[in-house]
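Tokens for JHBP domain-containing protein. Go.
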Amino acid sequence: ASSPNLKFILTDVEVTGLSGCKPKQIQHGSKLELKILCQAKLNGNYELNGQVLVLPIKGKGKIHVDLKTTQINVDANYEEKLGDDGKKHWHITKWSYTFELKDKSDVVFENLFDGNEVLGQAARELIANNGNDIIKEIGSPMIKAAVARVMKNIERFFKAIPVEDLILN
């Protein structure tokens, strides 16, 4: 999520909690439209230097994110392919997403300002009180990592279940 005013790099991101995602709405036609409610935790390493919200900020260390109820809206292109079972299955060819944070999210950056407690305290307070705004401003790579995992599981589901068993006529 780097921009002219911000360098933000995430590495070694681990996403947990996605098995509890619940479909809220599914529509299919020429595209597949999904609305999914998820709660997830993300842990990894970050490097940050620039401005977040109104605050100049920098640091390098561990990041912990708790995305409470998040609605993920996915538009997916798909095609039918013959599966190993000789039946037609859906295969996702391309997808895009948007997200809405339905509850307050928690974001914790360890080692802000290289451990300077005075500068770090002000930043931690701002971040603690504005978790959703932080996610909206710089969280796109984190959400994308979570959505990619969800889409991989949906693709696995489609590979296992033929179209004839998915669609009610």
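Strands lie at 6-16, 22-28, 32-52, 55-82, 88-101, 106-109.
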